Automatic annotation (TrEMBL):
The keyword Lipoprotein applies. It holds the Pfam family tRNA_anti-like. This is OB-fold putative lipoprotein. Keywords: Lipoprotein. It comes from the Bacteria.
Amino acid sequence: MKRKKIAFVIAALLLLVSAGIYFYYGFLFKEARNIESEMPDFSMTATKLLNEYNSNPKKADSLYLNKTIEITGKVTKETDSVVIIENNLFCLFTNKTKDKLINNNTTVKGKCIGYDELFQEVKLDQCTINKQNN
């Protein structure tokens, strides 16, 4: 009887450890998305995206949050790794931008991470420049 209890405890521990490993590698540990290589889920102007977020942020979040989006608009401000399009679209780049983009129409692709109500900005992360029009 004692051997059965020990075997049962060992089997339960092995099952528990296996489930933990499966959960960790199956759900928690995922490789980061490569937004640059993804096809955009949506392509639109910055003005359209900003209007949708200003009119109904919850609905816009349900459509765009964590999606790859391609946005076209006029760059109004830039720093080393941040570009602001149409004054209210915040684009964070993984690398410093080399081109001078200010006052140019530019197409940027990135992952939408939501709407900042305090600054009234839509934020994109992991951005890359798709094309620049003077």
